[in-house]
Design goal:
about 250 residues, alpha+beta, Chorismate lyase, 6-stranded antiparallel beta sheet, two-stranded antiparallel ribbon, 6 helices, 10 strands, about 25% helix, about 30% strand
Amino acid sequence: MSSLPIPRYREIADRIQGEIASGKWPVGEKLAPEQVLASEYDVSRFTIREAMSRLEESGLISRQRRRGTIVTAQHPVEQMVQKLGSMDELLQYAPQTRLKPIRTTIVEADVALAQMLPCSVGTPWARIETIRLEAKRSPVCWSDIYVPAEFAEVAERIGKDSTPVFQLMEQLHGMQAVDINAELFAGSLSQRKAEALDVAPGSPALIIVRRYRDRTGRLFEVSVSEHPAGRFSYSVDLKRKEGSLAAP
């Protein structure tokens, strides 16, 4: 019994994927326009669009209005999906991931940082730059972790195991997190962070800011995690209680 023929769009997608992997199309470079590729492969633009969709789903390219089709990764990206059983789990990552510290510096909050944390302008913070890794996957995200400057030594404990930083702060300084806020929004990656995450500069990103306060209201940790688009998502299952109303 003969196997079914491979669809033409898959053949084209596999060939372009091989060309990206070989370096013919480097990360950050534009692919040829659809009409050029259609002529090159002697197929319709519809077939090319199907091939592009397959490559985009693999995290290899990003199709952007006015910019064209940009190569965003050299190899297919396997998305990490974190299932949430409770809203508490929104505040931490799966235990199989690890933080890799890159650099720790002491910074004084300028206007922009003071608004983001929030704090007073000029407040000293230790900024711990890290990358979150999971075995056999592309890096999950870049995380800038801010703690009060006097607690900068916590950086020495980061990455030894999967213990979250806010729990390390509890162990080292007894600062129990009782008020935790999480904010999610879209953004784009700077050149330095994009290179570390193996994507093109300016690539879209999911940004999660987590803020931790103790029982006195003191802000003792803020993490800013930037995830390349298509590389990480949350999955939440919700059940409606009988008699309750959903928001419009």
